[in-house]
Amino acid sequence: MKKIMIINGPNLNLLGKREPEIYGSLTFQDYFETLKSKYPSIELSYYQSNVEGELINKLHEVGFSFDGVVLNAGAYTHTSIGIGDAIKGIETPVVEVHISNTFSREEFRHQSYISPNAKGVILGFGMQSYELAIQSF
């Protein structure tokens, strides 16, 4: 059975409440339950933190034993060299995801420190971005 970890970064714990015109009205926990039901042959795990170092620690923890990581680093995508380096240092492939199309937003969101070290990038498909990433493993 494949093991895939979904990691969400800062403010993604507010999905369902935060800017519903961009992120929708569904909580991630509700969506995660749907994913688990849809992919019973995959062992899906979920972790969320607003703290950069905790995200790096989780990548280190799963980065040698899981088959894949789906990472939405939120705003850290555009600022965290540390998270980019953590991805470079692990063996598990990471797919970067974003709910919104970051290129249709503020210019600072066009830069990613995750992308150069990721297996791929999926953005702009709403919550379905996570499912597309899961399908890539």
TrEMBL record:
One of its GO terms (molecular function) is 3-dehydroquinate dehydratase activity. Its EC number is 4.2.1.10. The active site is at 23 (proton acceptor), 98 (proton donor). GO terms for biological process: amino acid biosynthetic process; aromatic amino acid family biosynthetic process; chorismate biosynthetic process; quinate catabolic process. It holds the Pfam family DHquinase_II. Homododecamer. This is 3-dehydroquinate dehydratase. It comes from Pseudotamlana carrageenivorans. The lineage of its organism: Bacteria, Pseudomonadati, Bacteroidota, Flavobacteriia, Flavobacteriales. The gene is aroQ.
